[in-house]
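Assemble and predict.
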Amino acid sequence: MKSGARLGLILLLTPLLLWLVLLILIPHVDMFLVSLRERVGVGEYQVSLANYLTFFQEPLYLWTFLRTAVMSIMATLITLLIAFPVSYFIAKIARGRSRSALFLLCLVPFWVSELVRTFGWMILLRETGIISNLLQWAGLVSGPVEMLYNDAAIMVGLVYTSMLFMVVPLVTTLESLPDEVIEAGYDLGGTNTSVMREIVIPHAAPGIVSGSIVVFMLSLGNYLTPTMLGGKDSLWFTELIYSQFIVRFNWELGAAFGFMLLLLSSLIVWGMLRLTGQTLERTMG
Amino acid sequence: MSFDLECRNLTKRFGGTTAVDDVSFEVPSGSFFSILGPSGCGKTTIMRMIAGFLEPSSGDILIRGKSILDVPPNKRPVNMVFQHLALFPMMNIAENIGYGLRRQGMAKAQIAVKVDEALDRIGLPGIGTRKIDELSGGQKQRVAIARCMVLEPDVLLLDEPLGALDLKLRERMKVELKSLQAAFDTTFVYITHDQSEALVMSDTIAVMNEGRFEQMGSGRDLYYRPASAFVAGFVGDSNRWAGRVERAEGNVMQVRTESGLSMRASARDRALGVGDAAQIFVRPEAIRISTAADDLAHFDNHLSGRVTNLLFNGAASRIVVAADAEEIEVNLPQSGEFANLTEGDAVHIGWAGDQGNCFAAGAAP
């Protein structure tokens, strides 16, 4: 009987372990080993930290990384600011059918691929695009306006792509806040802002943090949106990794970049959790 | 007499349904007023209108003589203890109790003093720094009341706050709530579907059904002198028969039930005439049991039958007697003389005619 339970446990855990070991652990270990190699001659390698040194010594790499991190944080904040009222409306104000309809509306854009969605933005924002034509037709501008290929376009694309991943955890946590508690807040003399600040937001904090972590990670690791919407001055860190692997065929440096991205993004998330006084267990549990 | 709360012709319609239908009442200062009714009768709607979460379709609500219809919920001198208490889980107990005071802009030191006072008053001193989920059900209850009482509201509304507690605790909280009300000397308006909560605690009870008040009075009034068939059926237990009036002498009615049983009952000045369909309510404790028919000769109604069921429930034990095709519930006297009754025993039962309450049929639930 006991061995039967053990067998069941092993069978249940096997897919998970296979997934973890084959797809996450082994590639990462291998990547780490690659990043520690330095090519000293044709087919000759030695172990060194040279690739990591390159990252810190070359200002372009460091700057690109910082820019990517700061813009991802900004994208996360903007997403949060837009998603919070939307989620509050869905979870607490809308009722019955309109609630599911609104939730579906948030979901629908994600039925098409990210590539198509990004092309949608290009159609809207490019020089000969809809918005540019509309402005000219209205007489607000004299010639075509190019709104693509800059940081603002990247930001728009990132926020749009991330919205659902913020709305879902927020709606879930807000739904778990009983209406009674909000009413009690008003009943005891709270104003709209104080109820929001002292009751709703503290309750939604785990959702805010988990949504922010997901959105931050997605933005940081996004490749498609910055490449398509950004210009030649808006370099994204993932583009650097791509060019090392594919263009320069310098796997050693690319792997080191990958590891730096993993390390620094984990650091930022850890720092944010500390700053907001949340723990990973609370936000993910 | 001054009134803390007055409702005048209060009406609330939701679409086509009328949840509260032209209800008027006054609650004297410092009294414990209960609204008792089955779920869906509109009592919660009244409470939410007083608290300000719903706007009445028509009518007026006055607190200490001033209309509060234009006052938003956070400015009303009314506080509410919610059904599930709605304590703020993100705050500790002191922060919960101090929430309203912080909103009033009171100084921190003064809030701390007030919170400590309130904790003393509810008999839980020194627990201010604990978390909400460390408290037992009864303690949460008291904290929820303290959270409202520190604001010194004119009226405290309580929306079935004992519903979530287990039976033993509920019994204790009934007594405790009553003494808290006396200690704070504030007007309590309590809504419940549990008649014993209302009967034990209230000075005045309003029985509500389908959006209207059926009767308003003390617990005794409702129990012994129900004004309608609904109140007679809802408050306390009753044996109930439907029948037709055969003879009327003043208030004394001779009624024959559908199964042919003839009995006397009192109409208590209600308009009932010969031939009218009637409903008769007789409380199980109003019926006397005896082993000898002679003992009951002085009663207007007597029957002989057999015990078909023993419902043992300590002090509230009953038997079911089958007599003349009717089943009648009778309370066993507490003296123990019938402790040995068993099913199938022959017994005689009887009750005085004025213990039977007779209503015109049609209005009963």
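Chain A has a mean pLDDT of 88.
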